[in-house]
Design a protein that fits this description.
CATH class: Alpha Beta
Distance between the termini: 21 Å
Strand order of the largest sheet: 4-3-2-5-6-7
CATH architecture: 3-Layer(aba) Sandwich
Bound molecules: inosinic acid, magnesium ion
Structural class: alpha/beta
Helix content: 10-25%
Number of helices: 4
Shape: globular
Number of strands: 9
Largest sheet: 6 strands, mixed
Strand content: 25-35%
Order of helices and strands: EHEHEEEHEEEEH
Number of domains: 1
Radius of gyration: 16 Å
């Protein structure tokens, strides 16, 4: 059988390391948002595995919603973001926690944060599985970041390369020949 993980060169974050950290962050968010009933807003598709684990480590009352966005870097340096699926719930006066797989240039989350602020939520926070601060272009920071990672393209645990590898249970770096084909 040819497995998806045959294309992985090395493991960056193992399942054990990820789950231990996700527990810690879920507990911290539960303490910080005690009594506030936040709305967790997953940014699809990359968030889906992380969010499923994170939510089970959050012990306070909360709700869950999703947005889908596509980003195009194109030829401009700023990039453009398109909303493919918007929230179903009314977020006025609510505490929002955006859930991302990886904060890279920051263009996507910066756009999303400003887009949602127009609806006057009580607050907007960001939790990300990974942060690549060296690549930041937009002025946006994670309130909760599980792992700071180097400037390498990573897949697995929800993250893809050409829509593949999301089902790998850990985060890994792809073999260079996969890009060069
Ligand atoms: P940003 O707008 O540049 O911060 O990029 C945001 C999105 O690009 C992330 O939510 C990911 O979906 C995708 N992305 C950025 N870096 C990687 C990576 O190393 N692997 C897979 N997807 C990535
Ligand atoms: Mg994403």
């Amino acid at each position: 059988m040819r497995r998806a993980e045959d294309d992985i060169e090395r493991v960056l974050l193992s399942e054990e390391v990820i789950l231990e950290k996700v527990h810690e962050v879920g507990k911290k968010i539960s303490e910080d948002f005690d009594g506030k009933e936040p709305v967790f807003v997953g940014v699809l598709k990359g968030c889906f595995v992380f969010m499923a684990d994170l939510m089970r480590c959050v012990s306070i009352n909360c709700s869950v919603d999703f947005m889908a966005v596509s980003s195009y870097s194109g030829t401009t340096s700023t990039g453009a973001v398109r909303i493919d699926k918007d929230l179903r719930s009314d977020i006025g006066g609510k505490h929002l926690i955006l859930v991302e797989d990886i904060l890279d240039s920051g263009v996507t989350l910066n756009y999303l944060k400003n887009y949602l602020l127009v609806r006057q939520p009580a607050s907007v926070s960001i939790v990300t599985l990974m942060d690549k601060p060296s690549r930041r272009k937009a002025d946006v920071y994670a309130d909760y970041s599980c792992f700071e990672v180097p400037d390498e393209f990573v897949v697995g645990y929800g993250l893809d390369y050409n829509e593949k590898y999301r089902n790998i249970p850990y985060v890994g770096v792809l073999k260079p020949e996969i890009y060069n084909n």
